[in-house]
Amino acid sequence: MAKCPICGHAWTYRQKVLGYALKPRTRTKCPACRAYIEPSTASIIFDYMAIIALAALVFAGIPLMHLPVTTSVMLTGALILIYILVIIPLTVRFKQYDYNIKTPG
Ligand SMILES: [Zn+2]
């Protein structure tokens, strides 16, 4: 479960899709306390792995299957939808936004 590191709010599936998966990642806000949060390092790594796997399927896997163009396009769209609607909401975890403020001394 993706939880807000500040107030402990557990993100619902809908909040994860609309407030995170379909939005630019740089400005993620907690829907409960409005604090800026960002995905944890582990979920960023997982995100990259999922994108690489997705790209490999789309650019190498699907052409190898020699499907009709329409089927290939639909399959690509389905994979992107699965990524946005299933993989991201299931894997994302949040941490407090790092403002890179250096403590003096
Ligand atoms: Zn919060």
UniProtKB/TrEMBL annotation:
Question: Which top-level group of life is the source organism from?
Answer: Bacteria
The alphabetical list of record keywords is: Membrane, Transmembrane, Transmembrane helix
Q: Which residues cross the membrane?
A: 44-67, 73-92
Q: What is this protein called?
A: Cxxc_20_cxxc protein
Protein's organism: Lacicoccus alkaliphilus DSM 16010
